[in-house]
Amino acid sequence: MNLTRHCHQCGEPWTISGNPGRGEVCMKCRADLRVCLNCQSYDPRVAQQCRERRAEPVLEKHVGNFCEYFEFARRKWDSKEVKMSREDAARERLKKLFGD
User: Fold this and answer.
1) Which pLDDT tens digit goes with each residue over 36-47?
2) How far, rounded to the nearest angstrom, does the alpha carbon of residue 45 sit from its chain's CA centroid?
3) Which of 20, 41, 42, 64 could make an SS bond with 51 (beta carbons 3.0 to 4.6 A apart)?
4) Number of domains in the chain
């Protein structure tokens, strides 16, 4: 299994050593990289969605933050994680409806 550090939104690999700074963005989709969704402590099943008890609560998990406990998670990229925009999802439903 190939574990990589990558953008939570599009899967673009982060090849630079160390953690991204708060202002770092993905070169492909321009999403913030230093976000809860990219952290190894992020867990949607625990309180505040963070396993690090000393961390300050963050409301917007997809927005860059100043968390001092951030550690870029290494994980396998699953293309199914990519969420379609509402417009793209609607187009897909229409294609299925009309058999295109």
Assistant:
1) 999 999 999 998
2) 16
3) 41
4) 1
